[in-house]
Design a protein that fits this description.
This protein is α/β, with parallel strands linked by helices. Helix content is 37%, strand content 13%. Strand 5, helix 5 and strand 6 form a beta-alpha-beta unit. Bound molecules: pyridoxal-5'-phosphate.
Amino acid sequence: MRAWEENIRKVIPYVPGEQPKQKNVIKLNTNENPYPPAPGVRRALLRFSDFSYDNLRKYPDPTADALVESIAGYYHLEKDQVFVGVGSDDVLAMAFLTFFNSSKPILFPDITYSFYDVWADLFHIPYERQPLDEKFRIVKSDYEKKNGGIIFPNPNAPTGILMELDEIEEIVKQNQDVIVIVDEAYIDFGGISALPLIEKYDNLLIVQTFSKSRSLAGMRVGYAMGNKTLIQYLNDVKYSFNSYTMNQIVLAAASEAVKDEAYFQGTRKKIIETRERVKKELKKLGFSFEDSMANFLFVTHEKYWARDIFEALKRSHIYVRYFNHPRIDNHLRISIGTDEEMDRLIAFLREYLEERKEQGKA
Ligand SMILES: *Cc1c(COP(=O)(O)O)cnc(C)c1O
């Protein structure tokens, strides 16, 4: 090791799902929305290139006012209750940096979004993982011990399991001396948001994203909602880090995704319907899973190893997610695609399992 390496901040980075280069793959590995963004987004992009191209010389609005206003309007909040960032990953990283500054450990589930421990390590935030129960549910009483803050997704990822609102409220209520962050990346697929609780609890921050339910993973838009003091603290950290997080193109186009309510409801409904149908099909094939309220299913097979199924799927250009982590290394996370994509997945699995059965007999 060279002497200078000793002083380097070393991290084990988060590993995102694969983005295969080849076309014609069925991509069910990163929970992207299978449907395009709202048509208004496309119109705004065209308008931007026709009329505002020259503006790219200038810095964008550091307050991202147009986008903040659209989000605040949609959720009936004041503008000073909304913070926006480059995907919710950026928002969450800022929130870790801002709110988790105690010498006591922050708490989050042992099986959860695998970015949380990466940020905690990066920012030198102490943390303790709280084990999910044997059915992968969050155990509320684990979050009653002394801590420096709490974060969990609802529905949880990669399990898809939704926690009831009264249980979330109980956690927030028991922890009014610290900030509780609820990461609602998947809340639009059938869950009930804890957002109304921000009026009652000033220690609650809700984080959502345009990446999943609004089909804009490629644009990178996330946001946090909470009382204005929390948002002010977040903005102070953001302005101490990078003033211009949201670029002009995002500011011109992203708002359109919240304006087209009919389109949003339509795609949301389609994904939920497909998910419910796929649940039945996978059960018939011998897969089991806890009930998911997200745009993915987290499944295990009664007879065959998840890893083998994952490899076989990949060989036929169907990508799902496999995590080589303790407790979940016999599971697959399968994003909900279009009906046609899911039919092809199911057809493949049916044939694959049939073949394995034959091999077993031989
Ligand atoms: C996808 C995801 C995010 C982040 O998504 P962005 O694209 O950065 O908005 C955050 N939390 C969870 C649990 C997710 O699954």
